[in-house]
Amino acid sequence: MNKSIQSLLIGALVCCGINVSSAATYPTPPAKSAYMTNQQTSYAKDPTSGTFSGAGNISCMINLMAPEQHVGAGQYVALIDQNLCNDTSTSTTSGGSVGSDPSWVNAVLTVTQNTDSSIDVIGSLFIQKDGDGRKKNIQIHGTVWGGAAVYAPYGKWTMKFCSSLASSAAGSCDDGSGYVSVDTTGITTYQINGGNHQAGTVVYTSPTTGYGIIDDTSNSPKVSGRFRFGNGIYLWNDTQSGTQSCYDPSLSNPNVQYSTWQNYLYDQNTGAKLAYTNPGFFISEHGSTNQIGEANYDGLNFWSQDTPAQVNATTVDGPDGTAYTVHKMPGTLRKVTTNVGNFDQLDGLGINFGFWGDQVNGVYGNIAIVKQICNLSACQSLSSSNNIGLIGTWSKSTSKFTFTGFADWNNNGSITNFPATAVSYSDLTGNTYKIRGGGGWINGANTNYNFQMSQWNCSGGSCGYIVYTPATAPVTKQSQLNIKPSQLPAQTLACVGGMCPKWTTTLSDVSDFVGSPSTSKQDIGWDPSTGTPTISGHAIDWSSSTLNPNQQSHYYNLYTADNLSAMACTANGGSAGAAYCSNLITSPASGSTTYYTWQSGGQWDSYAYLTSPSGNSPTFDPPINLSYTVPALPGNTASYVGSTISFQSPQPGNLWVPGHCIDSSGAQAACNSSNQWVSDVNIPFAQDATGTVNKTNSDGSATSTSYYVKWLQRGVYFTTLPIAQCSGLDLSAASGLTLPGTSLIDPAVAQQPVPSQSVFQSKPSVVNGAAQ
Length: 772
Known about the structure:
ten-stranded antiparallel sheet
């Protein structure tokens, strides 16, 4: 049946029973260890989940307050970690949250028994920091008649609530109010916040079948439709677009997809969660407990929901009350370290490719490839003015690339998918495509690659390209770290090859330093006291809305004097050492190199860091480097199966595994607020190789340390089926349903008294469902 409805009905407290496999070479942690006992919860992500999950999260918290243990006992205090219930908790995919800290909710409740043997649960919740970063008071009135054992399939209860911002008057309900009812016949829910509402009704025809209707105006665009679910099948009719979708709500379908936001590492012997020494900390407004962001190895991150006053703060407080000074740069300086292998390390990885080469029919690189393998109008209309990334994989066994679409970086990364097309290495480097090299990155894994497919060579008075084979082509894996200005001494750097900055009367980008190879460079000054690279004393700062009204990101490779010496090469038709082959640094044939990059102008390009009252910056540990061999399990992208991937863990609960974004149909799409992130690699809870990751050194070499992995919170995106497979589900009954409305909102809930903070902070009688 529809699992999002199921998760609501059981209070979003399903603890997924996973069969733990065991092998002689893998330890079994103690039965009461964190690894064995930490709860796992899955949340379905389908068109109905937004309507039904919100009230389910609150009912989950009520369950963790153990009201049945306090009937007639008077007022009591409970403490709940809302992360155990919140299906929108997230450790973002690209750097994420400091994130394993509990998000505590203080509850003050009174439980009484009614004449019909039901119990009333009346009281208030205080949330220190909700998902939007704000403090809230929630007044609740729940009535419970019994659980699923008495009232199949999911119990009988109602819940009414009024949520108010802590900065507003108690009972203002300015964060929303709502009603939900569950009984043996179905569900009714209605929630309203400002001018938007979420309304839905479900009718059971059996414990595992039924139909329903929803209308959700809080989404953009609005979600409205009818649905019907049967055994192993689910039909959704979108009345906004007039389209229908058929789903297989099964976790065994190989095409099921997951988005995991809590993924922890555990000691294989003790089962304890791995301790991170200095992973980072949350920051608050100066003089306040209102949390507004986080500080970690990658710098300072202000949450986007916060006000400009918070984002522009010059002083913030750490968790111990220390007042830190905020330092902001108009761009991000990164240290890039390279390690070289061959094409074998790309085997099966999903990569956003960028190819470069000679002109083919007036275009180059990615565009030259796409126009020859894709007949769609979106492909054929591409020109040299387009900036696209080519989506695909490399196969070691076939020596072929398989391309499935492209991302248009001039159009917010929108993705055009086309039929999968294989192109051999030899064809790409031949006269059909004339590709000389390229690079790419893996979404979500903080991993970049550069590769040479041919090498410029001058011998006997003539110059030309020598083509590598996949086995001999140098493929450079790049690791990048954001660094503070003080971590790079004052010196003159250089930009050479590709686009470089230039100053005349204003800042601009030019390609004067491009050639085969380039014979000139642009000197760049670096002074750590200013924290910004310069040209003749002028800052390379693209953060101005006047200079850069579209917030376009400007990116430059910056090379040291040692880099310039190492990249000296023979100019085309010229003398030895008169040109700069930058690829000798970015994609060396062997060994390791280090250079720097500067990025400025984009929405997320600025960099901020903290200093303490003594002038020192807090110390944060870099991410833990890990490797994992991907098994053939449902949810793992086929091209990754059998591959050994490298990734990082920056903080507890956060693994930077590869992934991509999908639209409502499950097709790959641009990552934005309308689409959803899913992981290409999902690690199961298992005491064997499939549940084990290996720690590596920064250069990728193996260590003797391994960890178990256990996911605790994840979203499930079920497989889309041909619509004909849902032909047996009749939606006519759902058409006769009436949506619930405002008449269900009980104004009396907003009149319930809200306790003082001293009462909320009293010693709790219950913590996460356990009596104290």
